[in-house]
Amino acid sequence: xxxxxxxxxxxxxxxxxxxxxxxxxxxxxxxxxxxxxxxxxxxxxxxxxxxxxxxxxxxxxxxxxxxxxxxxxxxxxxxxxxxxxxxxxxxxxxxxxxxxxxxxxxxxxxxxxxxxxxxxxxxxxxxxxxxxxxxxxxxxxxxxxxxxxxxxxxxxxxxxxxxxxxxxxxxxxxxxxxxxxxxxxx
Length: 186
Ligand SMILES: Cc1cc2nc3c(=O)[nH]c(=O)nc-3n(C[C@H](O)[C@H](O)[C@H](O)COP(=O)(O)O)c2cc1C
Fold this sequence. Notes:
Layout: H1 9-13, E1 20-21, H2 27-38, E2 49-55, H3 59-68, H4 71-77, E3 82-89, H5 102-119, E4 122-127, H6 132-136, E5 144-155, H7 169-172, E6 174-175, E7 179-180
Antiparallel strand pairs: 1-5, 2-3, 3-5, 4-5, 6-7
């Protein structure tokens, strides 16, 4: 059996808290999170994502995004400095065919943002718990799917990352035929 290699530090430290401190994120640092999403890969390099975002400095916009979340998420997300929604363009710009990777790619961009957030000791928490009609009413055109909502902010003092719960790796990496792969030892 091979010796386990350490995971990248940012991947190890990333997690999704429900305890935020509402203090501001410096604009340059916030911008670096957007740059991270901007750098993500995508099918045909179409970058099918658009993100709707607002910070607490834009209280009306922030309130609209918060209001689109289910109450259970509002309860903690209200303390995050930035709230947002990911969206993905349903059709490829280059030929008009359906792009079934649109939210796949938006998710990749969101994950890049989460990793860049971790670099700055900030935390991004994705949310599927939102009202789809209210999310759509944020101005998302019909040509776009709404993906996930998300919150980004500073961690509340004392909040502790819980142990990660994950399904076995061997159940996630298979070989063709949907059987256990010898590449995965556990
Ligand atoms: C698309 C998506 C939807 C999610 N929806 C919610 C949600 O509505 N509420 C919530 O508290 N967490 C939500 N989560 C967070 C997950 O529960 C969390 O990522 C998962 O438990 C793994 O924990 P970790 O991110 O701390 O590693 C969501 C995450 C993703 C990626």
